[in-house]
């Protein structure tokens, strides 16, 4: 899965791993970096190896080197793996890709690519893949072989729910609802998943959100754009840990007439940027062209090695280029 994994990266990986385990394979799930506290409850998360944890590095390297099959989920550019990218690239195993991002990097084996940029979530693709594979499995007709059990359904539902913005973004197709209906038949408790993901914040995270909304949210009506900034000092002041800033960028879009929102965070010696947009304005193109990033049309991210002030200056300087497109959004 990609660095700083979100619920789709983690949920799709764990759901897929759980399927492979059930089919008798020897599976290890590796995350390049640590991940948010509200994903730790996901079934199987306790066995995820975090590559950047110093004691794990050697073990992860060996596993990747020896793997017959390396399953890459929820990313399609090896740079999204941080230092792990080079290891995966050089490993002899078959590389399989399950993803819905737009980046055109082709590192996976062509026969092992399950890549659909129209898919709402990687977890949706894992659902589809399991349906296809299970239909041809030797024990498909066995009564205990229902493809999705509750733990697997929780993982996949977490990914689909978050990547569709709880079923309100334009990527919420009939197929999404049909997949979820099928997962619910396994006994999945959707309220529990929603609560454990969204209503599970330390108080300091809500206070950080309050601070950003009252002090750090800027609206530029002429560009129908809102942006927010967070300095390293503010993250320390609010005891922010990984994942605590997820979702803050979405608040910019709640301002009337705003169709693009950006959040700039000073973290680990670089500026991490999150973009969100409404309608057909592509923040993916903007992130790709100016901020070494990518993602989806309405949700993308990138980073710079500049200071926070320089990054904002760059962002403000490119807005005129996008003004007509921002104004045209319905
Ligand atoms: P977020 O704002 O939640 O970090 O990311 C939103 C979307 O943009 C996700 O689909 C994520 O995969 C993508 N994204 C975020 N940061 C980067 C980046 O640095 N590079 C690329 N290529 N995609 C990114
Ligand atoms: Mn995803």
UniProtKB/TrEMBL annotation:
<dbReference type="InterPro" id="IPR038763">
    <property type="entry name" value="DHH_sf"/>
</dbReference>
<feature type="domain" description="DDH">
    <location>
        <begin position="2"/>
        <end position="160"/>
    </location>
</feature>
<feature type="domain" description="DHHA1">
    <location>
        <begin position="243"/>
        <end position="319"/>
    </location>
</feature>
<dbReference type="InterPro" id="IPR051319">
    <property type="entry name" value="Oligoribo/pAp-PDE_c-di-AMP_PDE"/>
</dbReference>
<protein>
    <submittedName>
        <fullName>Phosphoesterase RecJ-like protein</fullName>
        <ecNumber>3.1.13.3</ecNumber>
        <ecNumber>3.1.3.7</ecNumber>
    </submittedName>
</protein>
<dbReference type="Pfam" id="PF01368">
    <property type="entry name" value="DHH"/>
</dbReference>
<dbReference type="GO" id="GO:0003676">
    <property type="term" value="F:nucleic acid binding"/>
</dbReference>
<dbReference type="InterPro" id="IPR001667">
    <property type="entry name" value="DDH_dom"/>
</dbReference>
<keyword id="KW-0378">Hydrolase</keyword>
<dbReference type="GO" id="GO:0008441">
    <property type="term" value="F:3'(2'),5'-bisphosphate nucleotidase activity"/>
</dbReference>
<dbReference type="InterPro" id="IPR003156">
    <property type="entry name" value="DHHA1_dom"/>
</dbReference>
<dbReference type="Pfam" id="PF02272">
    <property type="entry name" value="DHHA1"/>
</dbReference>
